[in-house]
Write a structure and sequence with these properties.
about 500 residues, Helix Hairpins, five-stranded parallel sheet, Methyltransferase, Cobalt-precorrin-4 Transmethylase, Domain 2, Cobalt-precorrin-4 Transmethylase, domain 1
């Protein structure tokens, strides 16, 4: 606290909403104060005061300013100006001054900068009567998050295995926005509790599904949402803890001995299994395979943490910063015309980042050598095309394929043939690129179709108790046509 020749600001908590919940100190102070400023007149506790002197309410600020940030700034400026004029004033706020009261935080910062003396008289916050109404304990891990902050997010900022109080759910519109954010993580039917006027004679607690929280006509400035913890192990922190336990001395011997290198093959296999689930359109398998991928990411990160290389926070912070930095059209003021412009801007930003880091890379240098050859070929050609190393139309592409095909046929040795086959495949990949077809996906689709048709031939022959190597090729061709017709995409 600082002192000055100006007036003094005393910040007073009014409690959650009933005169009986006022502290004696707050009651005595406000009944004798000459200059009282109140954030909102819509608070039942105010009936306890005779209101001597001047009482000023800031409710009209919410109507005359465009958003809450401007409202809070205007309130703080009014109070600072009054104190600088020599007023000893009280600023009364609902609940406890240091619980979910943004104006108090801003006011204290401004008072410190202006060297204005201030004091805080505590009050009962909304938390205590809310917990009593819910019959729950704040420990372990109660999370408190302002509804107006949740509104500005697209994903809940807390782990679902922790209970959450969301105050200031003051309108159905706010409740609707909060619902949409929460439903990005919680099931629609997750049971929550709506608290109306907690701690007052009008207190009501209603248990409803999450998706109905904006249906109530009773929502007002004394409404708080309680989101109980999910009972399954659904949080990212839960999984990180499980992996850390597996690697701990009392964990699993197999997991303990793994290294970055030993897990490499399995990481690649899980990636392909996730791709396979996508190709098959099997959402249940995709969910499972993404879980396996996440397991590998956390296992690799836990190994790095133990070896003092990096932590999970480093990984998450790094990719989050990168995504924000490379999307200035979303998180800043840059403008882009379409998805192609986004991709081009991404590459330019990436190159600028590398230059700032002192890394000089060729256009093709960071294409992973471990990726499939078709993917490598496609990426090489696409990157070369970005700087104009490409034909103007598709006809030379087709001519190149014919040329490479003839060179395969006339290659004098097996080594030469292998080289020419590579050139032919590279040219075909270029054709796919011109047609905007992913060659890796196209070939995987062909492989899948071939396996299915071949499997049907095997099934037919098994039903006939005939071995495949006893069947003439002409008959196998006929069976192939049957399978092709029956398994037509």
């Amino acid at each position: 606290m600082t002192t000055s020749a100006t007036g003094k600001i005393t910040i007073v908590g009014l409690g959650p909403g009933h005169p009986d919940q006022l502290t004696l100190q707050a009651y005595k102070f406000l009944n004798t104060a000459q200059h009282v400023y109140v954030r909102t007149e819509r608070h039942p506790t105010l009936t306890a005061f005779a209101q001597h002197g001047t009482w000023t309410y800031f409710d009209d600020y919410y109507e005359t300013h465009p958003d809450f940030a401007d409202v809070y700034a205007a309130i703080v400026q009014t109070l600072i100006t009054a104190a600088q004029s020599g007023q000893d004033l009280a600023y009364a706020v609902p609940g406890h001054p240091h619980v979910a009261e943004s104006t108090v935080t801003l006011l204290i910062e401004a008072a410190q900068q202006a060297e204005i003396a201030y004091d805080v008289i505590a009050g009962v916050s909304f938390i205590e009567p809310s917990l009593s109404a819910l019959n729950v304990d704040a420990l372990p891990g109660l999370v408190i998050f302002d509804a107006l902050d949740v509104v500005n997010l697209y994903h809940p900022p807390f782990d679902v295995h922790l209970p959450v109080l969301v105050p200031q759910l003051y309108s159905r519109l706010v409740a609707s926005d909060v619902k949409m954010t929460l439903m990005n993580q919680y099931p629609d039917e997750h049971e929550v509790m709506m608290l109306y006027a907690a701690g007052t004679p009008e207190q009501v607690v209603a248990t409803i599904p999450l998706h109905e929280i904006d249906h109530s006509d009773s929502i007002d400035h004394l409404t708080t949402l309680f989101v109980p913890a999910m009972q399954n192990k659904a949080s990212f922190a839960d999984l990180a803890n499980t992996i850390a336990h597996l690697r701990a001395p009392d964990g699993c011997p197999w997991d303990q001995k793994q290294t970055h290198e030993s897990l490499r093959k399995d990481l690649l296999a899980e990636t392909y299994e996730a791709i396979d689930a996508i190709d098959r359109g099997n959402i249940e398998d995709l969910q499972e395979e993404l879980g396996d991928l996440l397991l590998h990411i956390l296992m690799q990160t836990q190994i790095a943490t133990e070896d003092f290389e990096f932590t999970l926070s480093d990984v998450v912070d790094g990719i989050n910063r990168k995504m924000i930095r490379r999307h200035p059209h979303v998180f800043s003021t840059a403008a882009v015309a379409d998805a192609d412009a986004v991709a081009q801007n991404w590459q330019q930003l990436k190159a600028a980042e590398k230059a700032e880091q002192g890394k000089v890379e060729g256009l093709l240098d960071n294409i992973p050598l471990s990726s499939p050859a078709l993917v490598q070929a496609y990426d090489i050609q696409a990157r070369a095309a970005r700087v104009g190393f490409d034909w103007d139309d598709i006809q030379p592409v087709l001519a190149k394929i014919s040329e490479e095909f003839e060179e395969v046929k006339t290659a004098p040795t097996a080594v030469d043939q292998a080289g020419e086959i590579g050139d032919l495949l590279f040219a075909i990949v270029n054709w796919a690129r011109w047609l905007k077809i992913d060659p890796e996906t196209a070939l995987r689709g062909t492989n899948t179709r071939f396996k299915a048709r071949f499997g049907m031939i095997e099934t037919i022959l098994q039903l006939q108790d005939v071995a495949m190597d006893d069947v003439y090729l002409e008959d196998l061709d006929l069976l192939w046509d049957v399978a092709k017709i029956n398994l037509r995409d």
